[in-house]
Protein backbone atom coordinates (compact mmCIF):
# COMPACT_ATOMS: atom_id res chain seq x y z
CA UNK A 1 0.00 0.00 0.00
CA UNK A 2 1.53 3.30 -1.16
CA UNK A 3 0.51 6.82 -0.19
CA UNK A 4 1.22 8.68 -3.42
CA UNK A 5 2.26 12.26 -4.16
CA UNK A 6 -1.01 12.52 -6.11
CA UNK A 7 -2.91 12.37 -2.82
CA UNK A 8 -4.22 8.87 -3.47
CA UNK A 9 -3.53 5.53 -1.78
CA UNK A 10 -2.33 2.89 -4.25
CA UNK A 11 -2.39 -0.89 -3.83
CA UNK A 12 0.53 -2.33 -5.81
CA UNK A 13 1.13 -5.96 -6.80
CA UNK A 14 4.88 -6.34 -6.30
CA UNK A 15 5.01 -10.03 -7.27
CA UNK A 16 7.35 -12.20 -5.20
CA UNK A 17 8.11 -10.49 -1.91
CA UNK A 18 11.71 -11.73 -1.83
CA UNK A 19 12.32 -10.16 -5.25
CA UNK A 20 11.90 -6.61 -3.90
CA UNK A 21 14.00 -4.74 -1.32
CA UNK A 22 12.89 -4.49 2.31
CA UNK A 23 11.14 -1.16 2.80
CA UNK A 24 10.89 0.39 6.28
CA UNK A 25 7.58 2.03 7.15
CA UNK A 26 7.65 5.74 6.34
CA UNK A 27 10.29 5.36 3.62
CA UNK A 28 9.83 7.02 0.23
CA UNK A 29 9.83 4.72 -2.77
CA UNK A 30 9.63 5.01 -6.54
CA UNK A 31 7.64 2.39 -8.46
CA UNK A 32 7.79 1.79 -12.20
CA UNK A 33 6.44 -0.97 -14.41
CA UNK A 34 9.10 -3.50 -15.35
CA UNK A 35 9.61 -4.59 -18.94
CA UNK A 36 11.88 -7.59 -19.19
CA UNK A 37 12.95 -9.29 -22.40
CA UNK A 38 15.96 -10.96 -23.99
CA UNK A 39 18.91 -8.58 -23.82
CA UNK A 40 21.70 -7.51 -26.13
CA UNK A 41 24.00 -9.65 -23.98
CA UNK A 42 21.87 -12.70 -24.84
CA UNK A 43 22.17 -11.91 -28.55
CA UNK A 44 25.93 -11.41 -28.28
CA UNK A 45 26.38 -14.72 -26.44
CA UNK A 46 24.36 -16.45 -29.14
CA UNK A 47 26.43 -14.83 -31.93
CA UNK A 48 29.73 -15.85 -30.32
CA UNK A 49 28.46 -19.40 -29.77
CA UNK A 50 27.19 -19.80 -33.34
CA UNK A 51 30.68 -18.83 -34.59
CA UNK A 52 32.36 -21.31 -32.21
CA UNK A 53 30.50 -24.60 -32.55
CA UNK A 54 27.96 -23.72 -29.85
CA UNK A 55 30.46 -22.68 -27.16
CA UNK A 56 30.92 -19.42 -25.28
CA UNK A 57 33.72 -18.18 -23.03
CA UNK A 58 35.46 -14.90 -22.26
CA UNK A 59 38.39 -15.91 -24.50
CA UNK A 60 36.10 -16.83 -27.39
CA UNK A 61 34.23 -13.55 -26.94
CA UNK A 62 37.46 -11.53 -27.10
CA UNK A 63 38.59 -13.35 -30.22
CA UNK A 64 35.17 -12.81 -31.80
CA UNK A 65 35.19 -9.08 -30.94
CA UNK A 66 38.74 -7.69 -30.50
CA UNK A 67 37.29 -4.35 -29.38
CA UNK A 68 35.56 -5.88 -26.35
CA UNK A 69 37.22 -5.67 -22.93
CA UNK A 70 37.65 -8.58 -20.55
CA UNK A 71 35.35 -6.87 -18.04
CA UNK A 72 32.66 -6.46 -20.72
CA UNK A 73 32.89 -10.13 -21.66
CA UNK A 74 32.78 -11.11 -17.98
CA UNK A 75 29.41 -9.33 -17.66
CA UNK A 76 28.03 -11.81 -20.23
CA UNK A 77 29.26 -14.71 -18.10
CA UNK A 78 27.33 -13.24 -15.15
CA UNK A 79 24.21 -13.23 -17.32
CA UNK A 80 24.71 -16.94 -18.06
CA UNK A 81 25.30 -17.67 -14.38
CA UNK A 82 22.05 -15.88 -13.44
CA UNK A 83 20.12 -17.93 -15.98
CA UNK A 84 21.75 -21.16 -14.79
CA UNK A 85 20.86 -20.45 -11.16
CA UNK A 86 17.25 -19.99 -12.23
CA UNK A 87 17.28 -23.33 -14.07
CA UNK A 88 17.08 -21.62 -17.46
CA UNK A 89 20.72 -21.44 -18.35
CA UNK A 90 23.06 -23.58 -20.46
CA UNK A 91 25.68 -25.97 -19.07
CA UNK A 92 29.06 -24.75 -17.89
CA UNK A 93 31.97 -27.06 -18.71
CA UNK A 94 34.95 -27.89 -16.50
CA UNK A 95 37.22 -25.49 -18.42
CA UNK A 96 34.87 -22.56 -17.66
CA UNK A 97 33.31 -22.38 -21.13
CA UNK A 98 29.59 -22.77 -21.79
CA UNK A 99 27.61 -24.98 -24.12
CA UNK A 100 25.01 -22.70 -25.76
CA UNK A 101 22.03 -24.50 -27.36
CA UNK A 102 20.59 -23.35 -30.67
CA UNK A 103 17.41 -22.16 -28.92
CA UNK A 104 19.37 -19.94 -26.50
CA UNK A 105 17.48 -16.77 -27.44
CA UNK A 106 14.12 -18.49 -26.92
CA UNK A 107 15.31 -19.67 -23.49
CA UNK A 108 16.51 -16.16 -22.66
CA UNK A 109 13.10 -14.76 -23.60
CA UNK A 110 11.35 -17.37 -21.43
CA UNK A 111 13.68 -16.50 -18.55
CA UNK A 112 12.82 -12.81 -18.97
CA UNK A 113 9.09 -13.59 -19.04
CA UNK A 114 9.40 -15.49 -15.77
CA UNK A 115 11.25 -12.56 -14.22
CA UNK A 116 8.44 -10.29 -15.41
CA UNK A 117 5.84 -12.41 -13.65
CA UNK A 118 7.86 -12.57 -10.44
CA UNK A 119 8.70 -8.88 -10.47
CA UNK A 120 5.98 -6.93 -12.35
CA UNK A 121 7.21 -3.61 -10.95
CA UNK A 122 10.59 -2.11 -10.09
CA UNK A 123 10.50 -0.76 -6.55
CA UNK A 124 13.35 1.56 -5.55
CA UNK A 125 13.84 2.99 -2.07
CA UNK A 126 14.82 6.62 -2.59
CA UNK A 127 14.92 7.52 1.11
CA UNK A 128 14.58 5.61 4.36
CA UNK A 129 13.91 8.81 6.32
CA UNK A 130 10.57 10.64 6.71
CA UNK A 131 10.30 13.33 4.07
CA UNK A 132 10.15 16.15 6.66
CA UNK A 133 13.60 15.12 7.99
CA UNK A 134 15.17 15.53 4.55
CA UNK A 135 14.46 19.26 4.45
CA UNK A 136 17.46 19.95 6.70
CA UNK A 137 19.71 17.00 5.85
CA UNK A 138 23.31 17.69 4.85
CA UNK A 139 23.25 15.34 1.90
CA UNK A 140 22.05 15.21 -1.70
CA UNK A 141 18.44 14.06 -1.25
CA UNK A 142 15.62 13.28 -3.61
CA UNK A 143 14.13 16.64 -2.65
CA UNK A 144 17.15 18.28 -4.29
CA UNK A 145 16.54 16.28 -7.46
CA UNK A 146 12.93 17.42 -7.45
CA UNK A 147 13.97 21.06 -7.00
CA UNK A 148 16.52 20.79 -9.83
CA UNK A 149 14.05 19.18 -12.23
CA UNK A 150 11.09 21.41 -11.28
CA UNK A 151 7.61 20.70 -12.62
CA UNK A 152 5.74 19.70 -9.47
CA UNK A 153 2.27 19.70 -11.03
CA UNK A 154 1.77 16.03 -10.14
CA UNK A 155 2.35 16.73 -6.44
CA UNK A 156 -1.12 17.40 -5.07
CA UNK A 157 -1.71 19.54 -1.99
CA UNK A 158 -3.33 16.68 -0.09
CA UNK A 159 -2.10 13.61 1.82
CA UNK A 160 1.52 12.72 1.20
CA UNK A 161 1.61 15.27 -1.60
CA UNK A 162 1.04 18.03 0.95
CA UNK A 163 3.92 16.70 3.08
CA UNK A 164 6.20 16.72 0.04
CA UNK A 165 5.23 20.27 -0.93
CA UNK A 166 5.99 21.49 2.61
CA UNK A 167 9.32 19.63 2.63
CA UNK A 168 10.29 21.11 -0.74
CA UNK A 169 9.59 24.64 0.49
CA UNK A 170 11.61 24.04 3.67
CA UNK A 171 14.45 22.45 1.70
CA UNK A 172 14.58 25.39 -0.70
CA UNK A 173 14.95 27.80 2.22
CA UNK A 174 17.60 25.65 3.93
CA UNK A 175 19.66 25.44 0.73
CA UNK A 176 19.52 29.21 0.17
CA UNK A 177 20.55 29.96 3.76
CA UNK A 178 23.67 27.84 3.28
CA UNK A 179 24.69 29.61 0.10
CA UNK A 180 24.09 26.58 -2.13
CA UNK A 181 21.38 28.19 -4.29
CA UNK A 182 19.97 31.57 -5.31
CA UNK A 183 16.58 33.02 -6.06
CA UNK A 184 16.97 34.74 -9.41
CA UNK A 185 13.75 36.68 -9.84
CA UNK A 186 11.09 34.04 -9.44
CA UNK A 187 13.50 31.23 -10.36
CA UNK A 188 15.28 29.04 -7.83
CA UNK A 189 18.70 27.77 -8.99
CA UNK A 190 21.34 25.65 -7.34
CA UNK A 191 24.85 27.01 -7.60
CA UNK A 192 27.35 25.11 -9.70
CA UNK A 193 28.70 22.10 -7.83
CA UNK A 194 26.17 22.42 -4.97
CA UNK A 195 24.66 18.93 -5.39
CA UNK A 196 28.08 17.32 -5.67
CA UNK A 197 29.20 19.24 -2.57
CA UNK A 198 26.26 17.81 -0.60
CA UNK A 199 26.98 14.32 -1.93
CA UNK A 200 30.67 14.49 -1.00
CA UNK A 201 29.84 15.86 2.45
CA UNK A 202 27.61 12.88 3.21
CA UNK A 203 30.17 10.48 1.79
CA UNK A 204 32.98 11.88 3.95
CA UNK A 205 30.82 11.80 7.09
CA UNK A 206 29.79 8.20 6.38
CA UNK A 207 33.44 7.30 5.70
CA UNK A 208 34.51 8.78 9.02
CA UNK A 209 31.84 6.80 10.90
CA UNK A 210 32.70 3.55 9.16
CA UNK A 211 36.40 4.19 9.68
CA UNK A 212 35.91 4.24 13.44
CA UNK A 213 34.27 0.79 13.39
CA UNK A 214 36.84 -0.67 11.00
CA UNK A 215 39.84 1.00 12.60
CA UNK A 216 41.00 2.11 9.17
CA UNK A 217 41.40 5.37 7.25
CA UNK A 218 38.75 6.37 4.71
CA UNK A 219 40.11 7.23 1.23
CA UNK A 220 37.90 9.05 -1.28
CA UNK A 221 37.76 7.18 -4.60
CA UNK A 222 38.74 9.35 -7.58
CA UNK A 223 37.59 9.22 -11.20
CA UNK A 224 40.00 7.13 -13.26
CA UNK A 225 41.43 5.38 -10.19
CA UNK A 226 41.84 1.62 -10.21
CA UNK A 227 40.08 0.12 -7.20
CA UNK A 228 40.97 -3.27 -5.75
CA UNK A 229 39.97 -4.76 -2.43
CA UNK A 230 37.55 -6.97 -0.55
CA UNK A 231 33.87 -6.18 -1.14
CA UNK A 232 32.84 -5.92 2.52
CA UNK A 233 29.20 -4.82 2.57
CA UNK A 234 26.59 -2.39 1.28
CA UNK A 235 25.90 1.02 2.80
CA UNK A 236 22.69 2.96 2.00
CA UNK A 237 23.04 6.75 2.01
CA UNK A 238 20.69 9.50 0.88
CA UNK A 239 22.74 10.09 -2.25
CA UNK A 240 22.64 6.40 -3.17
CA UNK A 241 23.91 2.97 -2.19
CA UNK A 242 27.64 2.28 -1.90
CA UNK A 243 29.94 -0.70 -1.41
CA UNK A 244 32.69 -0.71 1.20
CA UNK A 245 35.89 -1.82 -0.54
CA UNK A 246 38.32 -2.79 2.21
CA UNK A 247 42.08 -2.83 1.72
CA UNK A 248 45.02 -3.58 3.99
CA UNK A 249 45.47 -0.07 5.38
CA UNK A 250 42.34 1.81 4.33
CA UNK A 251 38.97 1.48 2.63
CA UNK A 252 36.85 3.39 0.14
CA UNK A 253 33.22 3.70 -0.91
CA UNK A 254 32.09 3.14 -4.50
CA UNK A 255 28.61 3.08 -6.08
CA UNK A 256 26.75 -0.14 -5.44
CA UNK A 257 25.75 -2.51 -8.22
CA UNK A 258 23.55 -5.59 -7.86
CA UNK A 259 26.34 -7.84 -9.13
CA UNK A 260 28.30 -7.05 -5.95
CA UNK A 261 25.70 -8.83 -3.78
CA UNK A 262 26.81 -12.22 -5.09
CA UNK A 263 30.47 -11.35 -4.58
CA UNK A 264 30.50 -10.09 -0.99
CA UNK A 265 33.69 -11.21 0.72
CA UNK A 266 35.53 -11.61 -2.56
CA UNK A 267 38.22 -9.43 -4.08
CA UNK A 268 36.90 -7.05 -6.70
CA UNK A 269 38.82 -4.79 -9.06
CA UNK A 270 37.95 -2.17 -11.63
CA UNK A 271 38.55 1.37 -12.86
CA UNK A 272 36.18 4.16 -11.85
CA UNK A 273 34.66 5.72 -14.95
CA UNK A 274 31.69 8.02 -15.54
CA UNK A 275 29.55 5.11 -16.72
CA UNK A 276 30.48 3.07 -13.63
CA UNK A 277 32.93 0.31 -12.74
CA UNK A 278 33.26 -2.81 -14.90
CA UNK A 279 34.05 -5.28 -12.11
CA UNK A 280 36.34 -8.27 -12.24
CA UNK A 281 36.18 -10.65 -9.30
CA UNK A 282 38.85 -12.84 -7.78
CA UNK A 283 38.85 -15.60 -5.22
CA UNK A 284 37.42 -15.21 -1.74
CA UNK A 285 39.94 -14.19 0.91
CA UNK A 286 39.99 -14.33 4.66
CA UNK A 287 41.19 -10.74 4.86
CA UNK A 288 41.53 -7.61 2.76
CA UNK A 289 43.85 -7.42 -0.19
CA UNK A 290 46.95 -5.25 -0.26
CA UNK A 291 47.05 -2.16 -2.44
TrEMBL record:
Protein name per Swiss-Prot or TrEMBL: DUF3363 domain-containing protein
Superkingdom per UniProt: Bacteria
